[in-house]
Amino acid sequence: MQVHKALAQGLIDHGVKTLFGLMGDGNLYLANHYSSIPGATYIASAHEAGAVLMANGYASVSGEVGVATVTHGPGLANALPPLIDSVRSRMPIVLICGDTAAGDRTTLQDIAQRELVLPTGAGFEQVRRPETAVQNLREALRRATAERRPIVLNVPVDFMWKEVDYRHDPLPPADRNTTLDPDAMDQAVGIVAAAERPIVLAGRGAATPSARAAICRLAERLGAPVATTLRGKSLFLADPGALGVFGTLSTSAALDQIGKSDCVIAFGASLNSWTTDSGALLNGKRVVHCDTDPQAIRRHIDVDAAVLGDAATIAHAIIGYLDEAEVPARRFREDWIEKSADLEDYEIPPSPASLEGNIPFHETVRAIDRLIPEDRVVVVDAGRFMFAGYKLLHVSDPHSLVHTCNFGAIGLGMGNAIGAALAAQGRPVFLVCGDGGFMLGGITEFVSAVQNGIDLIVMVLNDSSYGAEHIQFRNRDMDPSRTLFRWPDLSALAIALGGEGVTMRVPDDLTSVEKAIVNRTRPLLIEVKLDPDDVPTE
Fold first, then answer.
1. Helical (H) or strand (E) element with 261
2. Which of 83, 294, 378, 390 has the smallest set of CB atoms within 10 Å of its CB?
3. CB of 454 within 8 A of CB of 421?
4. Is 82 helix (H, G, I), strand (E, B) or coil?
């Protein structure tokens, strides 16, 4: 069969049932043939960046490799910012891009694509001969999973119609080596056994049922509270010993308990600056770092002991050591359970209102969050609102939260939300973004959400400004007027684009918002009008 058909069939045979993309002359035959295969779903984006973001959102929620395709030259160049974001979130993605035919230097779209890709941190897999295209695809899929990063598969356009023999060669099973280094375990157990006030911390890398069960058992055996990173949010939702998020988004009560601890045992957590508050939250504590990825250990901070391996295997092994040595459980967990019994679910500081009748931020976000169906996926765009928003937004498990601020870029939420919806298996997706992020990257792919019938609820926190810049001017007693914008009526714009829209200007409008959520039949945009001086940064 021709190469473009072989690549499409290879995706299906490797279990890739959803492909995101934007067609151009470098990839249109691949995308077209893939979409014709029974059981395959092709989602067209309106912009190349959206295709990569959709693959990222899909991978984040499904735990599978997300796959996207774009054309050469400007098509690939347009995809670079989300590619960088996916690299930094360590998301397994394969981006299949066409490339200019070798020797063709007359096309306007010709550019050195390898040199474009490598500075992003993504891997690059070049198809050098038509006969190797299917093997190169297999290798790109393997690398994406093994290296936990995007891999760009580069296919010259003149290869697409070449005839090749097709043969499916399945990917090898993942290496699940459960052998733990005895010296590393001895060092880790010594620290754990000596701790008087330990905390067990889990990140997205430990968000599997088996890991969760083993970590909970270890925490109970040790007498330790459990906590999560932001990307592990709600992993221990029903655990009475849960501190919530560990880091700069911790509640004041959790921060107080963290401050009293003398040891942190981390599973599948990168221990980045947000989790550790640039190391401040680990001062005076001994740290045991456990992960399946050797590159993750000591990546951001030095630790006292490191164990390479599966979270469940390590947790069970530590329990065995503790039992053998008859190490008694500590009271640190019970102390927290007694303390937390009197705490509210949310800590909501008073919201100032510089304008009469202004909407209070915290109460409004919390109220709308509670109107969204409980079983949903939450996607948070970047902006100054997101820190307070993360504290107020509810998810049922870590894979139901999609974090989009890995490159400090706004406007990446909408594409992620569409990809997340394809992996959400019928659950609605709740996207929270600012007006700047929506205007920068949201409008384009809102159209894609409409065209593909995505069950999407978008809450735009509209303060008519670029908020991060607005607050910087305010902090220096400077005029912030250059950060302000006169946007169009965003809810009316959503309707014009084929969706639904409702605006909340005063608290009493919450009734209209509730009706719009309940009665929605198309992607819904909720525009919440805010005063730029009242949007919190924490």
1. none
2. 294
3. yes
4. helix
Using alpha carbons, select from 286, 345, 296, 319 the residue that is nearest to residue 216: 319
**Other CB atoms within 10 A of residue 326 CB:** 6
How many C-beta atoms surround the C-beta of residue 146 within 10 A?
Answer: 15
Give alpha helix (H) positions in 341-440.
361-371, 386-392, 413-423, 435-437
Q: Which residue has the tokens 């901070």?
A: 301
Q: Buried b / exposed e across 407-443, counting CB within 10 Å, b at 16+?
A: bebbbbbbbbbbbbbbbbeebbbbbbbbbbbbbbbbb
| Dihedral sign computed on CA atoms, order 387, 391, 396, 397 | positive
Per-residue CA distances from 334 to 216, 224, 233 (Å): 14, 8, 22
The predicted model scores a pTM of 0.92
Instruction: For residue 41, list its beta bridge partners.
Output: 18
| Nearest-angstrom CA–CA distance, 20 and 156 | 20
Of 203, 101, 218, 94, nearest in space to 144 by CA: 94
d(CA 500, CA 458): 10
Find where tokens 């190490």 sit: 327
3-state secondary structure of 51: helix
Q: Where are the alpha helices (DSSP H) in 66-223?
A: 74-78, 80-88, 113-117, 133-147, 182-194, 209-222
- Is residue 210 within 8 A of residue 323, CB to CB? The reply is no
Q: How many CB atoms lie within 10 A of CB 493?
A: 18
Strand duo 456-462 + 524-529: pairing: parallel
Q: Give one DSSP letter per residue of 193-233, joined into a string.
A: HH-SSEEEEE-GGG-SHHHHHHHHHHHHHHT--EEE-GGGT
Q: Which residue type occupies 475?
A: N
Q: How far apart are CA 233 and CA 400, in angstroms?
A: 9
Instruction: Return per-residue pLDDT of the chain as tens, 538 residues.
Output: 999 999 999 999 999 999 999 999 999 999 999 999 999 999 999 999 999 999 999 999 999 999 999 999 999 999 999 999 999 999 999 999 999 988 777 788 888 999 999 999 999 999 999 999 999 999 999 999 999 999 999 999 999 999 999 999 999 887 666 789 999 999 999 999 999 999 999 999 999 999 999 999 999 999 999 999 999 999 998 899 999 999 998 989 999 999 999 999 999 998 999 899 999 999 999 999 999 888 888 888 999 999 999 999 999 999 999 999 999 999 999 999 998 877 765 555 555 544 445 678 888 899 999 999 999 999 999 988 888 888 889 899 999 999 998 888 999 999 999 999 999 989 999 999 999 999 998 999 999 999 999 999 999 999 888 888 888 888 898 988 888 888 999 999 999 999 999 999 988 899 999 999 999 999 999 999 988 887 876 6
Note whether 228 and 246 are within 8 A (CB): yes
